[in-house]
Write a structure and sequence with these properties.
The complex is a heterodimer. Chain A is of the alpha+beta class. Chain A is built from eleven helices and twelve strands. Chain B contains 19 helices and 28 strands. The longest helix of chain B is centred in the C-terminal third of the chain and has 28 residues. The radius of gyration of chain B is 27 Å and the shape is globular. Classes of the chains: A alpha+beta, B alpha+beta. Bound molecules: flavin-adenine dinucleotide (FAD).
Chain lengths: 263, 789
């Protein structure tokens, strides 16, 4: 780690001001950023901790919308997002208790790791990412591995999830990191079925449109069974599995997610 | 009623109180006044020529005390190899130099190029980034077979090729060939024993200190054998005589073999402290551990088994490539040879066995002993080929093994060693009972009803532990003796310190060793402490590895305690005015046989130190005895293991539903600790079978260089405790050591990998998938790929 200054503002205003300084960077749960700093892979001069900003925290329900503050930890979502059980269950499967008690939804979505779980939930629910300056639809937000629509120093302040009729997430764990080797989030809501896949693609989280189409006609595991798996050509191929294997898992996990959503 | 103290009891581990309350004293807890910190600049390429190192700018940076490079170590010894292997042509192995800091070339990712010593670690790291190193990339030698072709790059330019040795052992070639030509059936299997990284919880640490006043150096280090480090580093690397060099290995957080070896960082810190007249500390990061701790295993083997028409094994032949990595680590050369080849007969009567091993230099981290060291590799090859033979012949794998078991002891195999005792039928019977094999078919049907495949894996193994008879290993090329030593120091008031050469880094010696002495003397074990891990406190010791602590060092402790008893009886006889021959020791009381006259342990010990009424003309005052013990033979723990797996044919995922180990460890001193050792060993073996893989790409970059990619076994990878049964009730005591113990530390890691793989293959066949083999780790993706083929 290189040395850096740490500031801990209590308001968004102060945070935005602090982030205006050169080489400053937001710090949320630190579960991604701190390991990066330890490896000396980043060299911010100031870390602006978001952990003391009350308005970034908490889970609330308004009608059919569940809103999660950007600084809300995975453990809090797992415990408090009961109105959206598929999402609460996803949060409860991220990492281990230490990670869940520190890591936050804002940090996860800002980072957009191609194997992370929340991107699948956001894209698979048709969520809206709220920042300090605007609102971005999930469909526009994710722009490939570790790439998002966020501008420099833009802060994810909340995520708004429409609560679907049914939803479920199935994660097939990469054996070492236990991130998703392939994770599939399916939801059936007012605007139809969404199937979002994480872990698999070189382009990060994506929607499997063939499956969505089939499931819009018949929201049943059999409808997925009838499809052929997506092409493995654009899938991640590494130590833990070939592109073809991941493509195969996309289909299996989609099937299982639908079955689970149907309960 | 189980005993509550002494031999056979399971008192809770006394050392755990300090470990669990943060009171342990690990090497990193040691801080010396005014110490400096070293950061090693390590190679990020696998193979290259160092054309230039410029430290000018770095040396000017804040806090920098001194920067060392390979040039500072010219004329200083390299790290020695402790075991010379003789090639099958009679030539000694090739033994290239292993400099403390790279000289001229870097040979693996992680090879240290320069060492920056500074007032703080932060400053050392900052300055290291300012060092300019120019490296001309050379082709990386990674694949062992390719390394032996004539157009391969050379890892060591002064050697003619990348072959360290070509070793052959066992039956004559003609005998083996004849048996194969006459065989009714031959089964052949090619397999990989995957490279592993030991990953002890505590990374390595070294603190070198120097006292100018008396020219004494002290090294605090995370070692399994401080005396071995003192000998190797003092005599071969730095030229410091033993009486001026103290090595301390305090609490050590796990070793698994990888902390046996003498490492460059230890020599560096000791050397640098003398140079700058300040203590120098190094604490490995986890990332450094991945690329500087010696790795384990990494064999590529072809094994052939010949059987006659009645399914008797008639011959066995292996051809193995063993990866040495870039340099010869301390015991690296002995692992694929004497620790592997001599066990290749396994539990079976096979009359002809020949083992061939080519040890190969590559641009990878050095490979050395890791829990089991050579014996897991032997067991894996043998037990996989037997399983395959059973399938090919359509016979029950248990029956095939039973039919070929050695049943008469002692038994000398064609690969040199003589098993003193054992009962392989008994452990197999016990395993079958605990595994409830009669209901396996019903369990398989239940799994199939859920869309899963269930497989049963069987495995037998034998290991050579209690390492080792010195005269024998000396003939085999060891450059050290492998005895051990203990001093029993009885204090005036009767409490006892036992200084032992064994080193406890998780094994629980502090609990177990006192149980033995307490039993022998009939006193409470709370009066007894052991002292270990400091060359200035203990007589001598070869340390802990090879399941040797109790069998070898424990034997020395028994011998020293016997001497104490003999002397104490003389003192008691004097105090009781009786003849020494009539003195009996029971429950801490010395009594005169047939009378009610007695004197307590404490009175005798006090008399020894306050010798007012004492036979000074016959014996010296004091009560302290030392014994060195050199074992007459190895010990041969053996066992039968089984597991059931459930395989998800859609994903290839394998879950272990039940695991049973039936081990024969001879006598057991503390059952709880033995069971813990076996549970842990099996966990590591399951890790090897299903998860762990140190994987290099073709450029010699370690792909699994952190826990993001190197999969360690976790609790949920293992069966629930109720289905994780470790049994040690079959006991054939070792015939040649006083405690009749064989050693239990490695068994689990040796016995479990083939058990798991055999079960996976069985599961696949039950589902109609004719998969003959999958290399470890048997990951979901590999299983799935095998099913597609
Ligand atoms: C052992 C381990 C296991 C894990 N397993 C999983 C898993 O299974 N699934 C999974 O999805 N994730 C997993 N993670 C990642 C974890 O979920 C992290 O919490 C998450 O990726 C980052 O969140 P954070 O709050 O810790 O962010 P930080 O590490 O603090 O920040 C991450 C990045 O986002 C930026 N940032 C942080 N907050 C904001 C914000 N509100 N607005 C804009 N930018 C911001 C930071 O500047 C930084 O660049 C794991 C992590 C660890 C250490």
């Amino acid at each position: 780690m290189y040395s850096f200054d740490l500031v801990r503002p209590t308001s968004m205003e102060d945070a935005v001001a602090a982030l205006g300084q050169e080489d400053s960077q937001p710090l949320s749960g630190g579960q991604t950023l701190i390991p990066t700093l330890k490896q000396r892979l980043a060299m911010p001069s100031t870390l602006v901790s978001l952990s003391a900003i009350a308005e970034l925290k908490g889970v609330s329900v308004d009608g059919n919308t569940l809103t999660i503050g950007g600084g809300t930890t995975h453990a809090e979502v797992a415990a408090e997002a009961g109105a959206y059980p598929g999402l609460a269950a996803l949060a409860g499967q991220i990492g281990d208790p230490a990670v869940r008690n520190r890591g936050t939804i804002g940090g996860s979505l800002a980072n957009n790791d191609p194997s992370a779980c929340y991107p699948a939930a956001a894209l698979g629910s048709g969520a809206t990412i709220v920042t300090n300056t605007r609102e971005v639809a999930a469909d526009d937000y994710f722009q490939g591995m570790f790439a998002t629509a966020l501008e420099e120093n833009e802060i994810v302040t909340a995520v708004k999830f429409p609560i679907p009729e049914k939803a479920a997430y199935i994660k097939f764990q990469q054996p070492a990191s236990r991130f998703a080797l392939v994770g599939v989030f399916v939801s059936k809501g007012a605007d139809g079925v969404r199937v979002a896949v994480t872990g698999a693609s070189n382009d990060g989280v994506f929607r499997w449109s063939e499956a969505e189409e089939a499931l819009n006609g018949n929201f049943a595991a059999d409808a997925v069974e009838a499809l052929s798996a997506p092409s493995g050509a654009d899938m991640i191929s590494d130590l833990h599995g070939s592109g073809d294997y991941r493509a195969h898992l996309v289909k299996v996990m989609t099937k299982r997610a639908v079955a689970k959503a149907n309960g | 009623m189980p005993k509550d103290h002494g031999i056979g009891a399971s008192p809770k581990r006394r050392e755990d109180a300090r470990f669990l309350t943060g009171a342990g004293q690990y090497t990193d807890d040691i801080n010396i006044h005014n110490q400096a910190y070293v950061h090693f600049l390590r190679s990020d390429v696998a193979h290259g020529k160092i054309t230039n190192i410029d430290t000018t700018e770095a040396a000017e940076m804040p806090g920098v005390v001194r920067i060392f490079t390979g040039a500072d170590f010219e004329g200083i010894g390299g790290l020695p190899c402790g075991w010379e292997i003789t090639d099958k042509n009679g030539d000694p192995m090739k033994e290239p130099a292993h400099p403390v800091l790279a000289q001229g070339k870097v040979r693996h990712v992680g090879d240290p190029i320069a060492a920056v010593v500074a007032d703080s670690l932060e400053e050392a790291r900052n300055a290291a980034e300012a060092i300019v190193v120019d490296i001309e990339d050379l082709p990386a030698v990674v694949n062992m077979k390719a390394a032996l072709t004539s157009d391969s790059a050379l890892v060591h330019d002064d050697l003619s090729d990348n072959l360290c040795y070509d070793w052959q052992f066992g039956s004559d070639t003609e005998v083996v060939e004849k048996a194969f030509s006459e065989a009714a059936h031959v089964t052949t299997l090619e397999l990989v024993n995957n490279r592993l990284i030991a990953n002890p919880m505590e990374p390595r640490v070294a603190v070198g200190d120097y006292a100018r006043a008396n020219d004494e150096s002290t090294l605090y280090t995370t070692s399994q054998n401080p005396h071995v480090i003192r000998l190797l580093m003092g005599a071969f690397v730095l030229g410091i005589p033993e009486h001026k060099l103290r090595v301390v290995a305090p609490d050590v957080g796990g070793g698994f073999g990888t902390k046996i070896f003498h490492y460059a960082e230890e020599a560096f810190c000791t050397f640098a402290a003398r140079q700058i007249n300040r203590a120098v500390k190094w604490t490995s990061t986890r990332s450094e551990a991945f690329m500087s701790d010696a790795h384990g295993r990494d064999h590529v083997t072809k094994i052939e088994l010949a059987l006659d028409a009645d399914n008797n094994f008639t011959a066995l032949r292996t051809d193995t490539y063993a990866n040495m990595g870039a340099y010869l680590s301390t015991f690296s050369t002995s692992v694929p040879t004497w620790l592997h080849g001599t066990l290749m007969a396994g539990n079976y009567r096979t009359p002809a066995v020949q083992v061939n091993v080519k040890a190969v230099f590559t641009n990878t981290v050095p490979v050395d002993a890791y829990r089991g060291a050579g014996r897991p590799e032997a067991t894996y090859s043998l037990e996989r080929v037997i399983d395959k033979a059973a399938r090919e012949l359509g016979v029950d794998p248990i029956k095939l093994r039973r039919q070929n078991f050695i049943t008469q002891f002692p038994y000398a195999t064609p690969v040199a060693v003589e098993y003193d005792t054992g009962d392989y039928v008994a452990t197999m019977d016990k395993m079958e009972e605990l595994m409830d094999l009669g209901n396996f078919d019903a369990r398989r049907k239940e799994s199939e009803a859920k869309g899963k495949l269930r497989g049963l894996g069987i495995n037998c193994f034998i290991e050579a532990c209690g390492i080792a008879p010195s005269n024998l290993v000396g003939q085999l090329g060891a450059r050290a003796g492998l005895y051990d030593a203990a001093t029993v120091r009885v204090n005036a008031t009767g409490s006892i310190s036992v200084m032992v050469g064994a080193h406890s880094h998780g094994q629980g010696h502090e609990t177990v060793f006192p149980q033995v002495v307490a039993e022998m003397l009939g006193i409470d074990d709370s009066l007894i402490d052991i002292v270990h891990g400091d060359t200035s406190k203990i007589p001598f010791g070869m340390g802990t590895y090879g399941s040797r602590s109790l069998a070898v060092c424990g034997s020395a402790m028994v011998r020293a305690t016997e001497k104490i008893i003999n002397k104490a009886k003389k003192i008691a006889a004097h105090l009781l005015e009786a003849s020494e021959a009539d003195i009996e020791l029971k429950d801490g009381q010395f009594s005169v046989a047939g009378t009610d006259k007695s004197v307590a342990w404490g009175d005798v010990t006090l008399a020894a130190y306050v010798p007012h009424n004492y036979p000074l003309e016959d014996i010296e005052p004091g009560l302290e005895e030392t014994a060195f013990y050199d074992p007459a033979n190895f010990t041969y723990p053996a066992g039968a293991y089984a597991c059931e797996v459930e395989l998800d044919p859609e994903t290839g995922e394998v879950k272990i539903e039940k695991f049973v180990s039936s081990d024969d460890f001879g006598n057991v001193i503390n059952p709880m600790i033995v069971e813990g050792q076996v549970h842990g060993g099996i966990a590591q073996g399951i890790g090897q079978a299903l998860l762990e893989n140190a994987s290099y790409d073709e450029n010699g970059q370690l792909l699994s260089a952190s826990y993001m990619d190197y999969a360690m076994p976790r609790a949920d990878d293992l069966p629930m405790m109720a289905n994780y049964v470790v049994d040690h009730s079959c006991q054939t005591p070792c015939t040649h050591n006083p405690l009749g113990v064989k050693g239990c530390g490695e068994a689990g890691a040796i016995g479990s990998p083939p058990t798991v793989v055999n079960a996976v293959i069985d599961a696949l066949h039950s589902g109609g998938h004719k998969v003959e083999h999958i290399d470890m780790p048997v990951t979901p993706s590999r299983v799935w790929a095998a099913m597609q083929a």
